[in-house]
Amino acid sequence: MFSESDLPDVIPVFPLPGALLLPRARLPLHLFEPRYLQMFEDCLKTSHRFIGMVQPHDGPGGKDKLHSIGCAGRVTQFSETEDGRYMITLSGISRFRVREEVTAFSPYRKAQVSWDGFARDLGPAETDKIFNREEFMNLLAKYFHALDLNTDWENLQEAEDEMLINSLSMLCPFEPEERQALLEAPSLSTRRETLVTLIEFALRGGQSDELIQ
Length: 213
Description:
alpha+beta; 5-stranded mixed beta barrel; two-stranded antiparallel sheet; 6 helices; 31% helix; globular
């Protein structure tokens, strides 16, 4: 368990479009580009082993800019392939706010970050006291049927509130900006409300008022 005083001021950032990491969740990554292999090797030399996942977006001049909020994960598992690639797992620790990018002599990007406002991320798993699971699961079944997606319904039914909501937020095929909205949700309840809104929007085909039956 980390405390706020343990969190570093500067971390490497991985601007991977569409990849969402949330606190206390796990994200598998496949690293093969030389700059990210170097980032990973440098990460292992630190005491915290943090990598910040941040959504990129187009800025002035067409250059990749970073969204202001990302989530840091700690490398908790990794394996190397015969051709020098790495399969790693990040365990989500806390969201952060990007203060500024750091100019460094490294092939990958780094940022000075602030952890202020995200103390909840370092605590125990959240619960959603107003969560109507039956209603939510019925909506989810329509969504999975419409998109022809398969899942283990028994495990979903048994999952704790946070694991269920966060796993779906990370795994459902949402657009990057939609994933950013899920990341920035201030509580589990607001993330669930955002998730429901996105699912309903998808079921309406993004335009009509009637859910696809």
